Amino acid sequence: MALSNSSLKKLRQIVGKEHCTIEKEELVCYSYDATGKMYLPDAVIFPESSDDISAILKLANKERFFVIPRGAGSGMTGGSLPVQGGIVLVMKRLNRILEIDRDNLIARVQPGVVTGHFHEAVEKESLFYPPDPASSDFSTLGGNLAECAGGPRAVKYGVTRDYVLGLEAVLPTGDIIKTGVKTVKGVVGYDLTRLLVGSEGTLGIITDMTLRLLPLPESVSTITVIFDKMEAAAQTVSEIIRQGIIPRTIEYMDNASIRCTESYLKIGLPVDAGAMLIIEVDGKENETATEIEVLKSLCMHKGARDVKMAETNAERDDLWKARKAISPALYKYAPDKINEDIVVPRSRIPDMVVKIAELRERSGLTMATFGHAGDGNIHFNVMLDKKNRDELQKAEAAVLEVFEYTLELGGTISGEHGIGITKSSYIKKEIGETELFLMKQIKKVFDPNGILNPGKLFPAE
Amino acid sequence: MALSNSSLKKLRQIVGKEHCTIEKEELVCYSYDATGKMYLPDAVIFPESSDDISAILKLANKERFFVIPRGAGSGMTGGSLPVQGGIVLVMKRLNRILEIDRDNLIARVQPGVVTGHFHEAVEKESLFYPPDPASSDFSTLGGNLAECAGGPRAVKYGVTRDYVLGLEAVLPTGDIIKTGVKTVKGVVGYDLTRLLVGSEGTLGIITDMTLRLLPLPESVSTITVIFDKMEAAAQTVSEIIRQGIIPRTIEYMDNASIRCTESYLKIGLPVDAGAMLIIEVDGKENETATEIEVLKSLCMHKGARDVKMAETNAERDDLWKARKAISPALYKYAPDKINEDIVVPRSRIPDMVVKIAELRERSGLTMATFGHAGDGNIHFNVMLDKKNRDELQKAEAAVLEVFEYTLELGGTISGEHGIGITKSSYIKKEIGETELFLMKQIKKVFDPNGILNPGKLFPAE
User: pTM of the full predicted structure?
Assistant: First the structure.
């Protein structure tokens, strides 16, 4: 299904010559994502509207070429990569915030808006959009919806799907649909909105979204808690929730993550600590102050070595800079990284910590874990040189063992990164045959000719 | 597709003779719901397990009879009625709370558990399950999930779909599937969980559910606010949200609802008031006290005649008894009721109030409105004698006008009651042709022979 010259000509008629390119140096820019994998597209196209996208998809159905939607290309599982060729459809021109409605606590936004810009815009109006993946400085809302992004605040506020009320989307057939409502309630027909959210760009291309907002919390307080042992940190997380306290974030970094991030940023992280928690609470000023006191004493009681409050915004920003820098910083240890995104019921984090320590010991590989301890979402990273066959084998065996243990503990193999191409060979470990068959049939309903984002999510037959 | 004697025999083999009946007096008990409509089933069956249900559905596919799942039969749109005959499958034997897990804030529950019983059970453990439809004293969790029930607390806490993490369900084909996860995060494959939630028992029969819980708020405070004019009450609701306060409920009753409920319960409601709000806040003791003070002065400032705090639990219970009694109490006005369930963006409630006043004037019919003002969800009731053709015509015209105006204001024609049979002829007003086609195709994927809950949701062809 290579792109014919005549198709290319028609694509250029749809979006204008300057918005469709086949120049090698441009193709390269849209050939990779955060997995480090590269697949060159046949062309890259920059539509301006849902009508453009509709025309492109109609053409793709007629002339049978693949279309791969792309936000910022910050995905962790290859969702935006043209693995079977085709045209990459970049959403960056649909980048307007159409409406922020204070009275009804909603916003209407185009998919190309950068998540961090949207945060700033709503916060200026004293409003709050909780989902905040670590990539929020550059990832786009369209990509966030396609993957159902999570982030640190999910422990209190839930994930992306909990903030999507309605959508406009272009189906693979080129039909433009509207789903959902503008209100919290709405039960007319099947929930197509949440079927599109998290479908990894395989069921339709989102072109307009109505998002739910909250009032901006009056105050946020942040503490870091240092532990000698990872196990004690993990047990503290469970105890916090057991006490009925739901901080807005409970992030953790293990020793490998701390050391590596410190050597990259040099902001004085405790490199000898077994683990560090970053706990953040929000609410009214007096409430957060009280909660922080309760948390401090609870953490000390559970064996913390030190609890430190971020006293200024700059200190707080440094902490989050550190937290967000872990993933890239890890490349210090080795040229390659296998980055997994498991979730276990939070009371089972201590079990998983023990398991990973054992695997580290056994394999001799550097393994760093960090993530969203509050909701049991652990980013498990194995550092290696993929050219070293022995390391690669050991790493893959370790990942498989972690996945199997995750499922044994009642967890899931992907909390927020999706399946894409990197996990599709594992999906059958979690999803049964009948369930997978249903999903494939749904894909066929939406995309009878299989032209949208092929080779993703489903395992190769 | 009448039920054959041989099918009946096989059904009795599956569940045991005592759990399958064709006695007329029993059939009658399962022939109606809260719509007041009646359709006699061919048989009523009481399965004990998902295996029973699987066997029943496999038989239904083979011998082609209809199966209609039923919880407590408290639905408002006919979702559990055997409108084309077939067997009614009553879920009451699957009524166990399997697990309440404090550490992970989840519960595993069977669908036949009464919602109110579940509330009591989790509250005993200092946990909280927010969804609370007015019918919670008798409706079941299975029915709540099938309809995606809402209730008063949705303004702060969202609706049923926001609390469902994972499901076991029996497909119309008899296959048993598992969907979703036990954690807040989880993005493996398409969101079948939320596709089943709100599908009104047309895509599968839920047999086991994993629900998300919250810590029980420390304190709840309730005030009633009396207004001379409905318009002022509606504007007050908008102002509360604009101030960044999200009470857990903002309920309202108009004059007709107040008068009628008072004459039924005799608890001292202000029968001359234009409208009454019931506002409830929850949180830590000192927070709720502060918020109530802010709300009181805001309400007085916006023209309230009186603000009264419920000082005791008994007073609070009386208020909620009144609120929950409105729907049945309205039959005082006339033998029949058309009960609609619209939602408008909350800032547009004042417009809708004006519209309904005008319709009341024009038609001469008694119209009572009450509902969840905080999320724009208005229960619009027209009282009439359906045998009076003139009244019926006027009432139907008024409903149509309200639906059209609802959609004009950016709202939806069903917030929490679903479509069922009573609204299926209106669904095309809200849902486009392509969207409806997708939904029908999804139905076919799940239910190729169309044996599960036929005649619902989709308009007659």
Answer: 0.97
